[in-house]
Design a protein that fits this description.
It is built from five helices and three strands. By secondary structure, the protein is mostly helical. It has two domains: 70 residues, no CATH class; 45 residues, no CATH class. The structure holds zinc ion (ZN).
Length: 134
């Protein structure tokens, strides 16, 4: 994890200096490291911050600067926390599969994510809604 930690520190330094391009480049490496380590939540947070730096994800700008910095740990993996308890729209940049029909988001479009790391596509949501609301 020390690679990611160092890259995050370097990215923060670059961001403070106003070098957004360098910060984004470093943060992309961090996201790749997290992704390769199956740390999806951390990877998503880094990707969100990249989008904020790029000025794309304005909805998330109120999260402040580098909110994930405090979540970089050395040593054993900390207990999982689930701050988001309801459904959220999954990041389309992340490869994911509908947990019901097992089709990838590249095929079924955007997915809704649950706090348990599961996803549902529009077709399965429609079928489930019909079951629940009849
Ligand atoms: Zn589905």
């Amino acid at each position: 994890m020390s690679d990611a930690r160092q890259l995050l520190a370097d990215a923060q330094t670059a961001e403070v200096k106003g070098d957004k391009a360098e910060a984004i480049k470093l943060l992309r490496k961090v996201a790749e490291i997290y992704r390769d380590k199956q740390l999806g939540t951390k990877a998503l947070k880094v990707l969100r911050h990249i989008r904020r730096l790029e000025g794309v994800d304005e909805a998330a700008h109120d999260e402040g600067v580098m909110p994930f910095e405090t979540q970089v740990f050395e040593g054993p993996t900390p207990a999982r926390t689930m701050p988001e308890r309801g459904p959220v729209l999954a990041d389309p940049a992340v490869e994911a599969w509908c947990s019901f029909c097992c089709r990838p988001n590249s095929e079924v479009g955007r997915l809704v994510a649950a706090p348990t790391g599961t996803f549902i596509c529009a077709a399965c949501l429609k079928a489930a809604t019909a079951m629940l609301l009849t």
